[in-house]
Each structure stands twice: as C-alpha cells, then as structure tokens.
Amino acid sequence: MKPTVARKQPRKHEASPSHSMADQHESIDLGGPTVDSSAAARHSWFPSPPPPIYSCTLTPELVAKAREELQEKPEWRLRDVQALRDMILKEQPNLRTRLDDAFLLRFLRARKFDYDRALQLLLNYHAGRKAWPEVFQDLKPSTVKRVLDLGFLTVLPRPDPNGRYILCLRPGKWKPNDYPFVDNVRAIYLTLEKLIQPEETQVNGIVILADYTGVGMSQASNPGPFLAKKVVSILQDGFPIRIKAVNIINEPRIFKGIFAIIKPFLKEKMAERYILHGSDLRSLHRNIPRSVLPEEYGGTAGQLDMSAWSRLLLDCEEEFVVEFCQPDPLEGVVLPESMLFEGEQASGHDDDTFRGLRSQLYYCY
C-alpha cells in the first residue's frame, strides 16, 4: 500500500508495480510519438522532451521546486504515475490515450499530484478535441503555416528568470478576411503542445505576452462569447499547462469590451493574473525583464524573430501527425454529464449574450 502523504485530496490508490493491466488493453497506446532527434538538434535553443523511456531531466533546483509547489516526491513519482495509469484503465478502459510515464506526468504536475483531478484533466483534454472538431481535425503545423507566416504568435527564445518561456501573441496581425479565427486557436494549441513537452515547462509554467497593437472592431467582435468560452475552457481546464501570467500591452480602449467577453469564463485565480500595461513599457519590464524581451518591447535581446518558432513547429510535422491525425480517442467512451464542454446547444444563449456585449464593444470603441 502506498505510504500516507499530505496531499491535496488525492484518491487513495494502490499502484501496481508493472504495466500488466495495460497489456490487457491492446487498443491503448502506452507510448508517445517518436521524437525526431535531428529536428531537436536544429533547434538547440529549445529543450528536448523527456526520453521515450522516462528518466527525469529536472535539475536539482527544479526537483526541489516541484516538491514545494507541486507536491511531487521524486521517490514516489513513478508510483504515482502507475496509480493514475491504473485508474484510467479501470475507469475508462475504452479511452485511447497515451499511457507513457512522461505524458501522464504532465497531468499529475498540472493538478499537484491529485489523482482524481489529474484524471478529470485528462478526460477534459480529450473531450476538448471531440467538442471542437474544427480545431482538432487534421491538426498539424502545415495547416497553420499562414498564421505563423503572418506573425500571429511566436515563443521568445529566452525564458524569464523563473525559467518560464514566453508565448508572444499579436492579435492585430490577424484580419478576419485572411483566414478563420479557429486557425489562430489551432496555432496556439500546437504551440502549447510543444511547450509542454520539456519537464522544465511542466514545473515552471509559461507566461503570455499579448500585444494588441492594431486590434480594432473587426478582430474584437469576431470570436464571440461561445468561441471565447471554448478557448478559455481548454486553456483553464483542458490542458496540462500552468499559465503564470498574462501581460497585455498596447491595448486599445476597445479592450475593455474584449475583456468583458472573456472575464465571465475565467476563474478568479486566472483573472488576477491578467496585467494591463497599456503603452507603459516600464510597467511591462517590472514583470518581464528587458534582458529576455526583444527591442520592439524595450528589451535588449535583439529584434523579434517570428521565424524560429515557426521553423521548429514545421519541423515537427510528423510528430503532430502521429499525435493528432488518428481516430477519435473518445469513440465508445461514455463521459459524465458534468463534462467541461457543453456543446453547440449552448450557442443560443451565447448569441443573446453576444448581442449585449457587442453593444459594449461599440461603446468602448
């Protein structure tokens, strides 16, 4: 029996010493996609994911941080993974999901090693794909190349002093006539999938820097509450990543209306992590130091390079094909009624809400 440990309401569970239960479920893939080591070598600025057979890649400092912040005990790490694996096989035997150690660790770390919450997050992760097929069908970097080419997003090459990579979004680069809004979501999701691979990110989390230069009424009113709710739900409750701060810069007056659409769907803890800087770069530098920012944002890390992250994603095309271009992992799975995503039936109410919020947008504009 697993030793008693002070945790955040984990389910008491006895972990078996092997993958014997998995052997009885041939439809479930224990392993993850094969990582192209040559592609990783071409992008040495970004850390590689853990090896296929898990071996901890965390530094002693990050091991200590994971112990303090995530309740991760190195001596029990794989035992906890096995406990979650056994829960999946017992409670969701038809779920076609990766069961390898590195993959399941993402969910345990994101929920501070609470087995039940980690399992719920895993189910939400897969439910998101089923609820939003426009985003997840045939999801691979080549399908969002135009988004990347236009400079909608990138990842800055240097993490901040807390080891957090910075996802830089520039919504003003998107014009509704260029391509559908969901393509932006697809590019963001692919980026998050790549960011979460290294164990450093799983422990440290990420920071978002959103530059609203050029955002006008056409961009602000396009997604609407229904899509905004889906995006927020996926990021908050359907993806195993820790978003530690969202820095908004150069926001126009209309951003008050944009935030009015988003805020009702944010948990209080996440809403508190939104920091509005306006055009005050000194305010930004108090949260993200100049040493990791490009010159465009008053930093000293050279000019903003939008191509490096694009090349990294495109070089991982095969990896994403294996991960996402497969049969529906929820086929034959019965999910509880309290699942995260409510489906299209909620759109009627959201349309009414949108009409009210659209008037707020015009007022702010």
From TrEMBL:
Gene3D superfamilies: Alpha-tocopherol transfer, CRAL-TRIO lipid binding domain, N-terminal domain of phosphatidylinositol transfer protein sec14p
Domain of life of the native organism: Eukaryota
Region span, Disordered: 1-43
CRAL-TRIO domain boundaries: 140-305
GO molecular function: phosphatidylinositol bisphosphate binding
UniProt cross-references to PANTHER family, sorted A to Z: ALPHA-TOCOPHEROL TRANSFER PROTEIN-LIKE, ALPHA-TOCOPHEROL TRANSFER PROTEIN-RELATED
Annotated protein name in UniProt: Tocopherol (alpha) transfer protein-like
Gene this protein is translated from: TTPAL
